[in-house]
Amino acid sequence: PRGPAMRCSPLNLCEYETSKLVRIKSVKLGSLKWALNGVILLVICIMLLWNKEYQEYDLVVSSVTTKVKGVAQTNTADFGEVVWDVVDYSPNEEKNSFFVATNFIVTKKQKQGKCPEVPHYGTLCRTDNDCKKGLWDIRSHGVQTGVCVKFDVTTKTCEVSAWCPIENTKKPPRPALLTSAENFTVLIKNNIRFPAFNFIRRNILPEVDGNYLKKCIYNQRTDPYCPIFRLGDVVQGARENFADIAVEGGVIGIQINWDCDLNRFFNSCLPKYSFRRLDEKESNRTLYPGLNFRFARYYTENGVESRTLYKAFGIRFDVMVFGKTTVFIDWLIGTSCYSKESQQVYSERKYESVQDRQEVKHTHTHNASLHLHPGLLLV
Ligand SMILES: Nc1ncnc2c1ncn2[C@@H]1O[C@H](COP(=O)(O)OP(=O)(O)OP(=O)(O)O)[C@@H](O)[C@H]1O
């Protein structure tokens, strides 16, 4: 308030102004004010709920290991009776995926030597002049010797230095050699973590007992939490025919979805499995269908290094883990669930207390008169 006594110059240099609040005691105006405040609060709450901003999110960090089991027996004219176990058909351990060979082109007893190249563009010949010593291209199986030799009764091809005899079958056997791989099983171990909430979980659930695990096989309806999967069921779950995909191979995705709600009242965190084919399934309409690679097993025969060459066709199973969790944000927990002590800890972290400078000065003067070191007062 201004008083005439405060005026000390025409420029009002000695004046100080402050605002004045008027409190009107009225039931009508009071209720209107609180009604408006209530509406604003309601709108804010609706917006929060609508956008789910009352929750905090975290994405999953995961590790996957797999183990395939099963044996198969084949009986072919070329090789007689052969038993295949996991070491034969599942050669390599990859990150988040495993491969099961279902079909093979086998070339036995290969040795270093000279033999006719298999006929394809650039290797057919009539005389030695059509071949060139030292020549090779990307599709060659060896290096040309410069000689034209008989491949079969009607065809002549350039001779090559190579692992002989050269693999000479283009199409994989149909039906596939290991169609019975559909009865093999795979144990999938998946550990997940939501780092923001320091929450860990496995797909081998703590509630499940050892005896159950020894005999269970995953089934979406009857055994949805069994971590052992029959390969035939996985391929069927991806709406594919195992006998078809086994011939030339393919890629199947095993998706594990962790949709976790870690809120206090609905605490749930369970894996949900789904399957789908990841490569192009219309193999007739696709160039270069399927999945295959070559590997060899080496041995010595009469002191000569030899090998059996395998062109393996098979199914790669990619295990893909997705996950998201939600938790109420801190203010909600802070106001409703946490103890007074925890609230105080959070409050101290959230707010910084600063002393009014005028008061600090006052205390300083006071303490100086008590002969205390002034630096201590600023701590
Ligand atoms: N594909 C599978 N199908 C069925 N059971 C499996 C499969 N893979 C592993 N198991 C079984 O699950 C259990 C745990 O497997 P884990 O690999 O951790 O143990 P292990 O003792 O090393 O297994 P193994 O029997 O191969 O020696 C074992 O009893 C194992 O026999």
Automatic annotation (TrEMBL):
Membrane-spanning intervals of the chain: 32-50
Q: Which GO terms describe its cellular component?
A: plasma membrane; postsynapse
Q: Where does ATP bind?
A: K67, V68, K69, T185, N292, F293, R294, K311
Q: Write out the annotated subcellular location.
A: Cell membrane; Membrane
Quote the PANTHER family the UniProt record gives: P2X PURINOCEPTOR, P2X PURINOCEPTOR 7
What family does the entry list? Answer: Belongs to the P2X receptor family.
Q: What is this protein called?
A: P2X purinoceptor
Organism (species): Denticeps clupeoides (denticle herring)
